[in-house]
Amino acid sequence: MSRTKSPPDSFHTACILHLIQIYVPVSGVSNQLIPTLLHDPAVRVEYRRGVALSWNRWISTGDGLTSTIFVVEDEPDVRELLRVTLEGDGHVVKTAQNGVAAKRIIENLKPDLILLDVGMPGIDGFELARRIRETSAVPIIFVTAAVAEADQLRGFGVGGNDYIVKPFSLAVLRARVREQLKTSRPQMTETITLGNVQINTADRIVQCNGVTLELTSYEYRLLELLGSRVGKLVRKSEILNKIWDDEYADPHVIENTLYRLRAKLAASGANRDLITTHRGMGFRANRR
Asked: How many CA atoms, within 13 angstroms, populate the side-chain half-sphere of residue 152?
């Protein structure tokens, strides 16, 4: 395969990240993949002695919202691309492969936003949107190959808030997701204070002694979850479910993420007991 100086497209990078996350242990990421990943400015790889230790997208501090997004898409590659991309922005992403499965899930999920394909077997996207609108005002963005003007008008007619035609730009999709989330609910600024550490949950910025920390998405989400329950024990099972969705999570993923988070906090001057481990039970953030 010939080498090229141009970075790989976002779809290629997202799929690489997804495959590594599922199939390769953290300590076994091939060094040959590191240059490929580093072509994407949104991706960072932490490595020591030539072996990659972790990979993730840095959180985008300008997004301002962490939400639950429901992706309904029958093409596996597109579904995984959307999942990886949106999780890279810090969102919790749930997926369904068709309208029938989506109808069952959405009754209990109550997402903040739905990305909806049109051409699916069983219940198509237009019909599913119509049924959703009978009980919910959740924003719906159609992401579909149906390019005809009549299809787009029908999408808005059944209650869609936006319409994106495949193939699409990830940058544009992410921008439209952010806009729909901001429009659908007011952005509220909340600051969680843990000693000399401040967590701005609206802008998703963490500062210690006035210095902004560069955290990965998972590191930030772990700190925010523990900080939102300051002084209370948060069990490991709850953390896995809320942050990693428990599907592909390694049993030690919390400890590995917490190790790196503690190192960054300590380097910035945070109290070493800011987050305590209660063996066999869970973890606790302390306001000291």
From this structure: 9
Structure-token match 């998405």, residue found? 217
User: Coil, strand, or helix at residue 216?
Assistant: strand
Supply 149's token pair. 């003007």
**Chain centre distance of CA 53:** 20
Q: What is the reported pLDDT for 244?
A: 76
> By three-state DSSP, how is residue 47 classified?
strand
Q: What angle do CA 210, 213, 215 make, to 5 degrees?
A: 160
Residue with tokens 């380097």: 267
Angle between helices 170-184 and 10-23 (to 10 degrees): 80
Residue 52, C-beta contacts closer than 8 angstroms, at least 6 positions apart:
26, 29, 30, 31, 33, 34, 45, 46
d(CA 224, CA 218): 10
Closest CA to 91 of 109, 63, 112, 66: 66
Rounded Cα distance, 49 and 31, in Å: 10
Nearest CA among 88, 137, 129 for reference residue 112: 137
The vertex-189 CA angle with 185 and 190, nearest 5°, equals 120
Whether the model pTM is above 0.70 = no
Give tens-digit pLDDT for 108-141.
788 889 999 999 988 999 999 999 998 888 999 9
- State which H helix or E strand residue 101 sits in: helix 99-109
Closest CA to 275 of 209, 200, 225, 217: 225
The three-point CA angle 160-72-108 to 5° equals 90
Structure tokens at 28: 């076994």
**What is the chain's mean pLDDT, rounded?**
76
